[in-house]
Design a protein that fits this description.
Blueprint: E1 10-15, H1 20-32, E2 35-40, H2 45-54, E3 61-65, E4 71-76, H3 80-89, H4 94-101
Length: 102
């Protein structure tokens, strides 16, 4: 499934191999039906820069993206409330559905 649905938010996850906390974040996103891409942290130096800017030392980095692909939030660790808030803030509205049908 592609992540660039213009009406749906998504997450980019930068994770380490064999990371239980990373797996917890992925399980939560699966349970919520959220769209995400899991990427190896070691292969993405730009993610390390984002982690430094967000002042997170976590093994996983969560980058919450808007429906149009802009970075809305960056954080480390399992933060269910932040994930749910992002999904709610950028969920497609009735107006989006009506406009798509017009």
């Amino acid at each position: 499934m592609g992540t660039h649905d213009p009406r749906a938010p998504w997450f980019d996850l930068y994770v380490k191999d064999h990371c239980p906390r990373c797996e917890q974040v992925i399980r939560l996103l699966d349970q919520l039906g959220a769209r995400y891409r899991a990427r190896p942290l070691a292969d993405h130096p730009e993610a390390r820069r984002l982690a430094a800017e967000a002042r997170t030392m976590s093994a996983q980095l969560v980058v919450a993206m808007t429906p149009v692909g802009l970075v809305a939030d960056v954080f480390g660790g399992l933060q269910p409330l932040r994930i749910r808030r992002h999904l709610a803030d950028y969920a497609p509205s009735v107006w989006d559905e009506q406009e798509a049908g017009a």
